[in-house]
Amino acid sequence: xxxxxxxxxxxxxxxxxxxxxxxxxxxxxxxxxxxxxxxxxxxxxxxxxxxxxxxxxxxxxxxxxxxxxxxxxxxxxxxxxxxxxxxxxxxxxxxxxxxxxxxxxxxxxxxxxxxxxxxxxxxxxxxxxxxxxxxxxxxxxxxxxxxxxxxxxxxxxxxxxxxxxxxxxxxxxxxxxxxxxxxxxxxxxxxxxxxxxxxxxxxxxxxxxxxxxxxxxxxxxxxxxxxxxxxxxxxxxxxxxxxxxxxxxxxxxxxxxxxxxxxxxxxxxxxxxxxxxxxxxxxxxxxxxxxxxxxxx
Length: 297
Prior knowledge:
Elements: H1 2-25, H2 35-78, E1 85-92, E2 99-107, E3 116-122, E4 126-135, E5 138-148, E6 152-158, E7 167-173, E8 182-187, E9 200-203, E10 205-208, E11 213-217, E12 227-233, E13 236-247, E14 253-260, E15 271-275, H3 288-292
Antiparallel strand pairs: 1-2, 2-3, 3-4, 4-5, 6-7, 7-8, 8-9, 10-11, 11-12, 12-13, 13-14, 14-15
């Protein structure tokens, strides 16, 4: 009986000892999860995946729009021997996501010597304008412009630089910002009477082809911004002057007008004249009331 009791006691001590040893050796791992980082990671992952899908869809749309343009060019090629040609139709994207209004027009729009095809593709989001001229017995693209439908105002064909040839102008209005922001993208018809220059972008411009001059109002709050005066020089623009109100050290208008050779924050800036009032040449340009601030107080 004692032997059995001793064995039981010995066994109990063995179990207790082994359990103690096990507790000493066991290591508890604690995983700390940064919920903020996890949330940011998930959001970034969603953003990247969304951006990827958008890029893929844009690529597909671009390919399909190119196909629609190619079809329009084929129609143009078939009718390029006519004196004048116009056609409008609706093309549907292959995935039926939206429709594209297509217009093809052909004529002597810019000169009497060289006709041009103008192909427009109007989508729910953007307007695509491509102009073609016949060179080497085939139609060659000589101008391409894309404008966001939300900013597009109109486009015109007129002599802008005073060289006697008609140019192409896209007028649009900025969607962001606080102030007057009417823009014009001007493509100058080159001397070959077929091709166009890269575009010139002007803000709030008034064109005076007879003088070869562009006057306009810069971006800024009413009564607080400058006016500019540029002159055409072939396919370049010469800056003639900037005009703005003189201010004191306290930021108050002194009643004088400063005429400088460049924008007042340019490293080339130099005061040319200090006048008592704005010269008459600026008083009839579009946006002059914005420059003076009259009616915007």
